[in-house]
Amino acid sequence: MPREPVLPRGEVVATFDSYQEAQAAVDRLAHAEFPLREVSIVGSDLKSVERVTGKLSYGRSALAGALSGLWVGLFFGLLLVLLSPTGTTPLFIGAAALIGAGFGLFFNIAVYSIGRRRRDFTSVMQVIATSYSVLVGAEFANRARNLLDAPAAP
């Protein structure tokens, strides 16, 4: 039975503006043979960021649908060739890829036509934190602070 997620407990030994900085701090602890099971990185003040990557059009929608359909067609074509009791030709794989590309193209154009004018752009969504804290179990907190405050070894 899966456990519910629980926030880690411990003391904050350092806070950083970027995840890479927090990760570098944990790497320093790892190189110092620190018990890493006692360490957590906690992001705070989560923000949803949507970065617009371009304008969506019938052409872009059709191309994206054709490419994704092509991969699905290739997958099913290869799967059928591998599982077929009779020998099928590589032409079958090509045909399955073209059929997949066609279905993907028409499906994406239909979906774009229905949703057009409500969302005429492409984007990438991500969740980021404004700060990242390194938490360590209370019995190891002083050791972690000392290791992180010490000058980095060359």
Task: Write a structural description.
The chain is of the alpha+beta class. Helix content is 48%, strand content 25%. It is built from four helices and three strands, in the order βαβααβα. It has helices spanning 19-31, 58-83, 90-115, 141-149; strands spanning 11-16, 39-55, 121-136. It has a three-stranded antiparallel beta sheet with strand order 1-3-2. Helix 2 (58-83) packs antiparallel against helix 3 (90-115). The longest helix has 26 residues, at 58-83. The mean pLDDT is 88. The chain crosses the membrane at residues 61-85, 91-115. Keywords: Membrane, Transmembrane, Transmembrane helix. It holds the Pfam family YflT. Residues 11-88 form the General stress protein 17M-like domain.
Notable traits:
154 residues, alpha+beta, Alpha-Beta Plaits, three-stranded antiparallel β-sheet, 4 helices, 3 strands, 48% helix, GSP17M-like_dom, transmembrane, transmembrane helix, membrane, General stress protein 17M-like domain-containing protein
